[in-house]
Amino acid sequence: GAVVSQHPSRVICKSGTSVKIECRSLDFQATTMFWYRQFPKQSLMLMATSNEGSKATYEQGVEKDKFLINHASLTLSTLTVTSAHPEDSSFYICSARTVGNTEAFFGQGTRLTVV
Amino acid sequence: EDQVTQSPEALRLQEGESSSLNCSYTVSGLRGLFWYRQDPGKGPEFLFTLYSAGEEKEKERLKATLTKKESFLHITAPKPEDSATYLCAVQAGTSYGKLTFGQGTILTVHP
Questions:
Q1: How far is A40 from chain B (nearest CA, A)?
Q2: CA angle, B3 as apex, B11 and A44 as ends, to 5°?
Q3: How far apart are CA B12 and CA B26, in angstroms?
Q4: pLDDT of B87-99, one tens digit each?
Q5: Subunit contact A49:B36, Cβ cutoff 8 A
Q6: Staple A105 to which of A2, A11, A39, B99, CB 3.0 to 4.6 Å?
Q7: Residues in contact with A38: Cβ distance below 8 Å, sequence separation at least 6, in sequence order
Q8: Residue closest to A110 by CA, chosen among A8, A15, A14
Q9: Nearest to B43 among A43, A45, A108 (CB)
Q10: Do A42 and B103 touch (CB under 8 A)?
Q11: Percent helix, strand and coil across chain B, each rounded to 5?
Q12: Cβ atoms within 10 A of the Cβ of A90, count?
């Protein structure tokens, strides 16, 4: 299957700082990338959808100014958590798909801890 | 609104004891139903996509089936390494790739 690489796998940051998470499709061109958030023992909740070269579409209740998403190329999308607070601590996962393909492949996730 | 409900929440099996996981869904225009496996601290690993009622897919000890209202993931003679959380997700016809996930079934297989 297709490979999606997410980096870093773990990050600890101080409250008030910003953190950037990268999501790369290694062996295919990702026309669409998705960012999910997962709290302990809960399922994945979609945060936003990004298409290469255009603005991301955020799900209801997700602050677009807090969670900045950039999808500048067909192989890279980034999620920046701005002015992070402890309540932003969570497991963030990206997925990617290519045009004409319904299957989405997931990265390995990033554990963010804000202290 | 698309909805996915998985049952049971947790399932404990003895090695070799076959069973099934259920995924009930409500979606406007199903474009695909997906099964994923997720290990602790990892991203979901793709298992199957089912597109229409009556379709079945198999991979090693796993077999996924689909009806118009639900999907089953059958596990035959499971091994301890099959222990994981199994996630079901649906893609609606107008969602442009967006997946709606169920809450998952935590499977534990004891040796």
A1: 10
A2: 65
A3: 27
A4: 999 998 766 678 9
A5: no
A6: A2
A7: A44, A45, A90, A91, A92, A93, A109
A8: A8
A9: A108
A10: yes
A11: 5, 60, 40
A12: 20
